[in-house]
């Protein structure tokens, strides 16, 4: 009896504390490391992605650096602001203060493994797919959108070597440009796969080299006419998927009189037309011919000139109206890219080296998917249409609610705070503006500064602007 009482709470001073198991020690160590996560983002997304600390114990371990980087990207901050988040997190935990210099954080960020960051993005995609409602599919099939975009990098020598600026710009007067091709799920807006390259690489080549491998049987992929080639349609069919592309501008067809729908047979182009990125044996492995359906879509809107375009598809049974409406949904990918580039600030990166810039892109895309996860959960719980929810409103609501979620004293209180976040997201709906057509124009005029026509180091102030 005495021996048992020695291990009661408060009685350890007689013969010492009970020895902790290895599992208990590891659990406590993990909790301590997670407590250092700046910005409280870990407490919000711990059920979505798994971020653990590895290596020797240091202030900027992998977990701390990751969440500091995540907060920097989500808020559009600097390395200095990320360091301040870590300082605040340490203050909350009663830990010693660290230097205000951002050097240690920048060094830790450079140690992050790009492959690990991309694996976290794949993990977020899996969670999005698990929670997706089947009613968001098109006729029971998954619809994928593919398109390309680009972002600018700081004008440094290393960035210019890896991602040169457009050839028509003078040396020293432009920004390096990274080209991106993304594959999105139309149902929930999730970014499933992305590829990066310099600007001179073909978009369709990036699709054929890596992105088409994400296609599953019964998928339907939709893209603009840059992708409407024999090769891309054949690659989609090789995966058991169907394609809805706008007809490539190099192909000219005349429909029979009175018909807007016909099926033709495409022959495989000659070996001389093979793209450089495709091997000869791979080209010969493509089918010698295939049937393609051409559909002429006519658009007539009151107040606008009538227009028409031609779709090339492998869907033989779908009606013309269904194909037209499906292709019109392709515009959603432009909205998805706007959310990433404009709302999250990926249009102009901050990394002065290609490795850091590539990690910035990976982190932006991961942050985008995590915001999409919150929007999907809010839509599922509130039964509000996902496409009517505001991405910008979701990001703003998350920044305000994350503190209440992390500071919840119990699991019940945390669930109530999460419900409050979801209700806030679901109530922030986009206005319905049918027939809206406004030009891309800005009201504020730019400053009257002279243009940079030479490298900045060679540029001198114009004599007319010199101070008298």
How would you sum up this structure, described in words?
This protein is α+β, with helices and mostly antiparallel strands and 468 residues long. It has three domains: 25-112, no CATH class; 115-343, Transposase Inhibitor Protein From Tn5, Chain A, domain 1 (Alpha-Beta Complex), CATH 3.90.350; 390-429. It has 17 helices and eight strands. It has an eight-stranded mixed beta sheet, sandwiched between helices.
Quick recap:
By secondary structure, the protein is α+β, with helices and mostly antiparallel strands. The protein has 17 helices and eight strands.
Poorly predicted spans: 1-14, 32-36
Corresponding CATH superfamily of the largest domain: Transposase Inhibitor Protein From Tn5, Chain A, domain 1
Please describe the biggest sheet, giving its number of strands, its sense, and whether it closes into a barrel: 8 strands, mixed
Strand order of the largest sheet: 3-2-1-4-5-8-7-6
Layout: helices, strands, pairs:
Layout: H1 2-5, H2 12-15, H3 22-34, H4 41-45, H5 62-75, H6 79-92, H7 103-110, H8 114-130, E1 143-152, H9 157-162, E2 177-185, E3 191-198, H10 203-209, E4 220-223, H11 230-238, E5 242-246, E6 261-267, H12 280-284, E7 289-299, E8 307-313, H13 320-328, H14 332-343, H15 354-382, H16 391-406, H17 411-427
Parallel strand pairs: 1-4, 4-5
Antiparallel strand pairs: 1-2, 2-3, 5-8, 6-7, 7-8
Helix pairs in contact: 5-6, 5-15, 8-15, 15-16, 15-17, 16-17
Descriptive keywords:
468 residues; alpha+beta; Transposase Inhibitor Protein From Tn5, Chain A, domain 1; 3 domains; 8-stranded mixed β-sheet; 17 helices; 40% helix; globular
């Amino acid at each position: 009896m005495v021996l048992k009482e020695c291990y009661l709470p408060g009685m350890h001073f007689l013969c010492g504390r009970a020895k902790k198991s290895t599992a208990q020690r590891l659990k406590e160590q993990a909790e301590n490391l997670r407590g250092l996560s700046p910005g409280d983002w870990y407490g919000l997304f711990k059920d979505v992605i798994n971020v653990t600390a590895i290596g020797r114990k240091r202030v900027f371990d992998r977990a701390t650096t990751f969440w500091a980087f995540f907060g920097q990207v989500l808020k559009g901050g600097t390395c200095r602001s990320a360091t301040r988040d870590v300082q605040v997190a340490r203050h909350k935990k009663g830990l010693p203060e660290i230097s205000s210099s951002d050097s240690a954080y920048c060094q830790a960020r450079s140690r992050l493994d790009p492959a690990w960051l991309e694996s976290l993005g794949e993990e977020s995609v899996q969670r999005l797919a698990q929670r997706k409602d089947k009613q968001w599919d098109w006729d029971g099939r998954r619809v994928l959108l593919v398109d390309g975009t680009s972002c600018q990098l700081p004008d440094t020598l290393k960035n210019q070597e890896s991602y040169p600026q457009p050839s028509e710009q003078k040396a020293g007067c432009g920004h390096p440009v990274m080209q991106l091709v993304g594959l999105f799920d139309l149902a929930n807006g999730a970014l499933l796969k992305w590829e990066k390259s310099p600007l001179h690489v073909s978009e369709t080549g990036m699709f054929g080299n890596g992105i088409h491998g994400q296609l599953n049987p019964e998928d339907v992929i939709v893209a603009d006419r840059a992708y409407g080639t024999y090769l891309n349609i054949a690659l989609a069919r090789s995966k058991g998927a169907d394609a809805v592309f706008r007809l490539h501008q190099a192909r000219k067809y005349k429909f029979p009189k009175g018909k807007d729908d016909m099926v033709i047979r495409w022959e495989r182009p000659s070996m001389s037309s093979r793209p450089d990125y495709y091997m000869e044996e791979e080209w010969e492995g493509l089918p010698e011919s295939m049937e393609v359906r051409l559909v002429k879509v006519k658009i007539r809107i009151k107040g606008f000139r009538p227009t028409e375009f031609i779709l090339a598809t492998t869907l033989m049974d779908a009606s013309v109206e269904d194909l037209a409406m499906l292709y019109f949904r392709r515009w959603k990918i432009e909205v998805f890219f706007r959310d990433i580039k404009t709302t999250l600030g990926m249009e102009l990166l901050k990394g002065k080296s290609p490795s850091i810039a590539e990690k910035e892109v990976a982190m932006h895309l991961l942050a985008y998917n995590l915001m999409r996860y919150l929007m999907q959960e809010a839509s599922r719980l509130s039964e509000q249409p996902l496409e009517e929810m505001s991405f910008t409103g979701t990001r703003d609501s998350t920044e305000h609610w994350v503190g209440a979620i992390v500071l919840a004293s119990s699991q019940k209180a945390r669930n109530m705070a999460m419900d409050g976040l979801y209700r806030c997201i679901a109530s922030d709906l986009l206005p319905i503006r049918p027939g809206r057509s406004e030009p891309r124009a800005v009201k504020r005029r730019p400053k009257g500064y002279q243009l940079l026509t030479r490298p900045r180091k060679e540029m001198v102030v114009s004599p007319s602007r010199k101070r008298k």
